[in-house]
Amino acid sequence: MNSIFAGLSTTIFETMSRLAREHDAVNLGQGFPDDAGPLDVREKAAEAVMTGWNQYPPMLGLPELRRAIAEHYARFQDVVVDPDSEVMVTSGATEAIADALMALIEPGDEVVLFQPMYDAYLPLVRRAGGVPRFVTLQPPHWRLTREALDAAFSARTKVVLFNNPLNPAAVAFSDEDQALLAEYCVHYNAIAVCDEVWEHVVFDGRTHRPLIGFPGMRERTVKIGSAGKIFSLTGWKVGFVMAAAPILKVIAKAHQFFTFTTPPNLQAAVAYGLGKEDAYFTGMRADLQRSRDRFAAGLAGLGFATLPSEASYFLNIDLKASGIEEDDVSFCKRLVAEHKVAAIPVSAFYAQDAVTTVVRFCFAKRDETLAAALANLKGVARRK
């Protein structure tokens, strides 16, 4: 057995979902919405499977989807890419990340990772032969610092794996933070693999600015997006990769031996969806922000200290500030067993030097689901 994968423990998502089932708990652990997704996009997928092409599509993706991706990012983020040579479609963003890491890393290359991090990153980096160098971010603001980057970057740095907005922390990095990171990437001649799947799920009037748009980054950035997050269709697994042609050419060679292609009916539906009017994207954000605000207010009313949620489906609480002298893993196990609410300990997203006082809830749920969770959480916090 391969030691990297054989040595992995069961994911925290599977562990907490199993406990939620065992205790008949409200599951605010795993991050997927209750919403079925936009009807017109789903109808396009159904129509395409019945009347369209169901054999192998082109390896890089349907031309109509690649054009739609290029037009979408030019429209929303002023990112100009050639759909024929700088855009590729993958079976989800995780596959895109794996393709990029396998294509870009040689054994012994160093890869900068920011903790807390999506749990797929570290095993993929190690399987590609990369040597991880960690930047540990701290709540409540999770900011990048020159001191931390100085400690992580070196002459052996090949890749920086950067998640913005950052899922476990629900933070959208500022222009100042990103400019600092771009400075280091340029100085050390490193390629940034940017996991930006939450780019449309940002709140409070924010507009996502991608790292690829910062000075010196156009030719050294792999930008990755996800239709699943944009359209609340997490099971579809349709990802986007954008990069300068010399980089994308090599990533595509990795892609052809992972999945080769992605269901053509889903690609056709996503091509349609990316061209939807602005009202869809602003409305989606507004609905999620309403759920965030409702849940945050409910938690605060129960005595929990919440951390800022600037993006994603998630809201974090600070245990210590909530008067709870317990580590996050113990708290989450007690919470699901005694109070019938499943959450995720954020320490699960660290490889070392973990922060153990932050717990993550998913608020992308129906009002009645969030109300049930809040009812079960009464009396848990101890803050006066």
Question: Summed up, what is this model?
Answer:
The chain has 384 residues and is an alpha/beta fold. Helix content is 41%, strand content 15%.
Q: Please write the CATH class name of the largest domain.
A: Alpha Beta
Relative helix content: 40-55%
CATH topology grouping of the largest domain = Aspartate Aminotransferase, domain 2
CATH H level of the largest domain: which superfamily? Answer: Type I PLP-dependent aspartate aminotransferase-like (Major domain)
Instruction: Decide which structural class fits the backbone.
Output: alpha/beta
In spatial order, strands of the major sheet run 2-8-7-6-5-3-4
- Count of the domains: 2
Number of helices: 14
Task: Report the strand count.
Answer: 13
Strand content: 5-15%
| Low-confidence blocks of residues | none
Named CATH architecture of the largest domain: 3-Layer(aba) Sandwich
Choose one word for the global shape. Answer: globular
- Specify Rg, calculated over alpha carbons: 21 Å
The overall pLDDT, averaged over residues, is: 95
What is the string of SSEs from the N terminus onward? HHEHHEHEHEHEHEEHEHHHEEHEEEH
The rounded distance between the terminal residues' Cα atoms is 52 Å
Largest sheet: 7 strands, mixed
Task: Please characterize this protein's 3D structure.
This protein has 14 helices and 13 strands. It is of the alpha/beta class and 384 residues long. It has helices at 3-6, 12-22, 39-51, 63-77, 93-104, 121-127, 146-152, 175-187, 227-230, 245-258, 264-274, 278-301, 328-339, 367-376, and strands at residues 26-27, 87-90, 110-115, 131-136, 157-163, 191-195, 221-226, 239-242, 305-306, 314-318, 341-342, 344-345, 358-362. It starts with a helix and ends in an 8-residue tail after the last helix. The longest helix has 24 residues, at 278-301. It folds into 2 domains: 3-30 and 279-376, Aspartate Aminotransferase, domain 1, CATH 3.90.1150; 39-276, Type I PLP-dependent aspartate aminotransferase-like (Major domain) (Aspartate Aminotransferase, domain 2, 3-Layer(aba) Sandwich). The strands form 3 sheets. Strands 2-8-7-6-5-3-4 form a 7-stranded mixed sheet, with helices on both faces. A 4-stranded antiparallel sheet has the order 9-10-13-12. Helix 5 packs parallel to helix 6 (121-127).
